[in-house]
Design goal:
By secondary structure, the chain is mainly beta. It is built from 2 helices and 14 strands, in the order αββββββββββββαββ. It has helices at 11-14, 194-197, and strands spanning 32-40, 47-51, 60-64, 79-86, 95-104, 106-109, 111-112, 128-135, 138-146, 153-158, 169-175, 184-192, 204-208, 219-223. β2 and β3 (60-64) form a beta hairpin. It starts with 10 loop residues before the first helix and ends with a strand.
């Protein structure tokens, strides 16, 4: 498990002007902010994003003009934070959208711990969990973590002893490189759980975490 950087979504990246002309009372369409998965991106074909309602298996399909994600565009399967306006004006509705901005978030894949030592220290640095939900075959999280310019260890590690259980157990591993004082910033994470979720023996996934936002909430359960 190598140390990784967690990209920070700067608030200015997703702030959109909502000003109207002086004296104008005309309503302005709402801008929505969601974690979406890139299904198709390029300069010759429409841009297609998949948006999942929490704990859903089938996506809402959002379409934007070719090149809407710029060049180079994120690879298909990458989750991003998108700021967009649906043409219909309705949230969670398939159809064309105007994509205003997008930002990278942390994309990971669940890993299997090879030895017990791999799980040691998984709770060294608690996370401040704001929200967590399943989006298709991914677990999305909104977290507050101690800011650090150095790579940290951050992963979702499966306990191999539970691999054949109907509901395997995984640990949200978080460890900063130092214990120097810091401050919290907000991060978004999308973790691909397909290697576990696609197993016919799996009926769900249990995630254990050290949660400083609510110390009594240390287990998340996601079921098919």
């Amino acid at each position: 498990m190598k140390p990784i950087f967690l990209p920070l979504i700067l608030p200015v990246l997703l702030l959109l002007a909502a000003c109207s002309e002086k004296g104008s009372d005309e309503p302005h369409p709402a801008t929505l902010y969601d974690i979406c998965e890139v299904a198709q991106a390029g300069t010759a074909t429409p841009t297609i994003l998949h948006l999942y309602r929490p704990d859903s298996d089938e996506p809402v399909i959002l379409t934007a003009p070719a090149g809407a994600l710029g060049q180079p565009a994120p690879d298909p399967g990458t989750s991003i934070m998108a700021a967009y306006t649906p043409a219909s004006g309705e949230p969670y509705t398939s159809g064309p959208v105007t994509l205003h901005r997008w930002a990278t978030i942390t994309n990971l894949t669940i890993q299997e711990a090879k030895t017990e030592n791999d799980l040691q220290g998984w709770d060294n640095d608690p996370v401040w969990l704001l929200s967590a939900w399943r989006a298709g075959n991914k677990i999305c999280m909104r977290l507050r973590l101690g800011y650090d310019t150095a790579p940290r260890r951050f992963a979702l590690l499966l306990d191999p002893a539970t691999l054949e259980d109907p509901i395997p157990t995984a640990y949200l591993y978080h460890s900063r490189p130092t214990d120097a004082p810091t401050f919290d910033r907000q991060y978004y994470v999308a973790i691909d759980i397909t290697p576990i979720w696609s197993l016919p023996t799996t009926s769900g996934l249990r995630i254990r975490l050290a949660n400083s936002a609510s110390p009594s909430l240390t287990t998340l359960l996601f079921q098919k």
